UniProtKB/TrEMBL annotation:
Organism the protein comes from: Absicoccus porci
InterPro entries associated with the record: NadA (IPR003473), NadA_sf (IPR036094)
Enzymatic reactions: iminosuccinate + dihydroxyacetone phosphate = quinolinate + phosphate + 2 H2O + H(+)
UniProt xrefs under PANTHER family: QUINOLINATE SYNTHASE, CHLOROPLASTIC, QUINOLINATE SYNTHETASE A
Enzyme Commission code(s) on record: 2.5.1.72
Entry protein name: Quinolinate synthase
One GO CC term on file: cytosol
Gene name of the encoded protein: nadA
Root EC class: transferase
GO molecular function, one term: quinolinate synthetase A activity
Function: Catalyzes the condensation of iminoaspartate with dihydroxyacetone phosphate to form quinolinate.
Pathway listed: Cofactor biosynthesis; NAD(+) biosynthesis; quinolinate from iminoaspartate: step 1/1
Amino acid sequence: MNTKEMQDEIKRIKKEKDMLILAHAYQSQDILEVADYMGDSYGLSVQASKTHHQNVVMCGVRFMAETVKILSPNKHVYLANRYTGCPMAQQMTKEDVLMLKEKYPEYAVVAYINTTSELKTVVDMVVTSSSAVRILKKMPQKDILFIPDPNLGSWVAKQLPEKNIKTFQGGCPTHWRISKKDVERARKEHPHAEILVHPECKPEVTALADYAGSTTGIMKYAKESDKKEFVIGTENSIVQHLQFDCPDKKFYCLSVECVCHNMRQTTLVDVYNTITGKEQEEILLPEDIMQKAKIAIDRMVEAGK
Ligand code: 13P
Ligand code: SF4
């Protein structure tokens, strides 16, 4: 079977089996072409909260599939490739959060969506990169513990000086690979280009960029801009997608090192195997974890509107 034949089969079977395919923006082009929806972590959560399909296949990483399951507990949710974890989601446990809450009882705890479902059972709010500023602004609490990504946390804090946001150690190992030197080199090599980065990048990188936003925020900005050249500071798949969508513009990687090996693990064959039932990883979570984690995730979907 070649790529086109496999894609046609996936499209045929997903209709037959009432399956919805969700793909994060970092997935490969051949997967995006069979997906019903492509988006950032917030967009994927919104889709999950309103789907009518009985079966959902997530092409992304595990916490994304778990979020879908929590938002749609009565659906069958599958992770297209069982080995795709997010290293950032493993950086803090529920026990770590409980310890922080004891130390800072007067603070509200806000967790980035890139965390485990168990951790989400003890936090006040969940946010994504595209919804964090909007949601924190609406929260009545001034004092906030932002976990686990200090880069995203300090980017949010800069935009909300009225809040007292405390961050901790952690972050995305993929975006940490981008340095200030990469930005300086890109400015020299592409003097007419705009530099667009993800807020998971280090603060000194984000400070020198022309725009910082979520994966789909970056894509939207580049598509709508009158500029013709862009240097992209997020997972390098976004460079390929933008080049594909905007053939009259030029896109460059801010760092060739910005590759998420977890996101890149999922292949079209994994999607095919999941949808045909040849190899499936169904997401099953304990009932009490789903119910408790749903409270903070529902708050995010509602407050993010
Ligand atoms: P967003 O798509 O929400 O910007 O998240 C980026 C990311 O690193 C997902 O793991
Ligand atoms: Fe996790 Fe970073 Fe990969 Fe996103 S890009 S899945 S945050 S390691």
